[in-house]
Amino acid sequence: MNGRHAEGPHEHDRGLSHDLPVLARRRMIRLVAGAGLIPLAGCTSERETSAPPSSSPSAAPSAGCATIPEETAGPFPGDGSNGVNVLKESGVVRSDITRSFGDSAGGTAEGIPLTITLTVVDAASGCDAPKRGAAVYLWHCDRDGAYSLYSDGVTEENYLRGVQETDDEGRVTFKSVFPGCYPGRWPHLHFEVYDSLADATAATSITNTSQLAFPKDVCDAVYATDGYGESVRNLSTLSLESDGIFSDGHDRQLATVTGSTGDGYTATLTVPV
Fold this sequence. Notes:
It is a single chain. The relative contact order is 0.19. The strands form two sheets. Strands 1, 2, 5, 8 and 9 form a five-stranded mixed sheet that branches. A four-stranded antiparallel sheet has the order 4-3-6-7. The chain has helices at residues 15-34, 197-201, 216-223, 229-235; strands at 113-122, 129-130, 135-139, 161-165, 171-177, 188-194, 206-213, 256-260, 264-272. Mean pLDDT is 83; it is low at 1-62. A hairpin with a 6-residue loop joins β1 and β2. It has four helices and nine strands. The protein has 273 residues and is of the alpha+beta class.
């Protein structure tokens, strides 16, 4: 059992209740900025999950292609909205996010290899048109359930965080490791979508914030391997239906995952924006 989990309630035990104050603060910043009281530049934006993507009928997605559900970025985004901002650091634009970079401690995240491919598409086109030249910032916890830059023991690390620009097919691909399961949350990863790489590295003008969920059978297989022992116990108390984020529906956020514990896994998800 990792030392971070032993001292009283784990920092993630609060689950959604821990996420909501951050989400509320972001929404308040957005509302005040919209009223012209403070500039929006440098602030992240987040919409209600149930909010339409636009008030303009012409921008509404087709019935068969809804925008990716909007979710909280949680308390450990690393995008400047809650303390540290990794997005403005040289080296954050990368596909291999297993290692820390720059002036960090230089550690490497251990675990079952995981390749993550997100395909960003235009919801208004019926998901037919890829979003070329957009950018995705992706981050998640390590196999111990710790978030670099924030959690005890890894505050000097910045691994498992990175930015990629979408290619002509709207795709971004990250090389990572399978995240652990910490108390109170179903195994997941976070991502933010930006209109451009310049916006992402300036940490401004987020268009979408969401989360990706992993299938239970894959989680069970991964957590049966060495190094994920704590995740077995944590996962046994959870379900997608009871998770504070995914309980209202997870079909559009559940990744398609292929592979094995021996060869590693590939997780794919289409992200309509």
